[in-house]
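Table 4 source record.
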Amino acid sequence: MRALALLPEELHRRIVEKRNSLLQSKLSADIIKDLEERMQIEFVYNSNSIEGVMLSRGETELAIRGMTVRGKSITDLLAAQNHPQAIRLVRELALGRKKLTQQDILDIHRAIMAGIISTAGQYRRQDVHIVGASFAPPPPYQIQDEMGQLVEFINENPDDLRPVEMAAHAHYYLAWIHPFDDGNGRMSRLLMNLILLRNRYPFAVIRKVDRKKYLDVLDAVSGKGDFEPFLIYIARCVEQTLDLYLNAINKDRPKEKLRTLSELARGTPYSAEYLSLQARKGVLDAVKVGRVWMSTKKTIETYIKEHGRKAEVG
């Protein structure tokens, strides 16, 4: 295992500042509990939806709470109902601060896939072909060794990766190894969040609406050897989750109105397309509402001040 890319400094600095603001905020136990419950539902709904689970957000919440959801397959219901136990294991491992083991990963997989596949908690014993992917996962006889290298990479951090960088690398490597018969995507996102939690970041959500973008940048690592777009994508997911927490904390404080980048581009040297590109790269602080990037007038003014007033080139 090796480090494939590092975050742009501007994006990393902004994420750390937001995390520190969250840590310094004085939250009551009730607010923390409410936020964590809401984010757990968001995580479970989106993570499962990416894998084709046919439960709405509301149905996911009902299933997590152990309530009946009629007309849905037992597999889809278990995909939601299993998550709380898996997330509890992730939190315990993150807070325990002990070194991660392969058995820990197997235990999380057993929890998340219990009742869904007969090999829950076991590495696959056959070759797999991922439809549409530009890579072939290693054969079964290499999985134990590859997973051992991944665990050592996470525990020893030989390249001194920062938390968000390590979280993205761990996600990619587990997805590439594809060690299980099923549940590899869900496991990759849980492992990513274990590392984030260990470093005092909240659970990050990769959204269903961005599924194509997410899979494209993930596949580009193996297909083109280009890790940076995936790394930036994961970092932006972390930042957007931080924004959600900070907005919830500061909901009673006056704040500047969010506007679309098309609105904000008017009267500036930049086009909406250019600002959108900078948002995707993480250079511009923006949030994605549905499929639309949004920011504030103050943020654009700061961007112009820091990056100059020259219109984009090319």
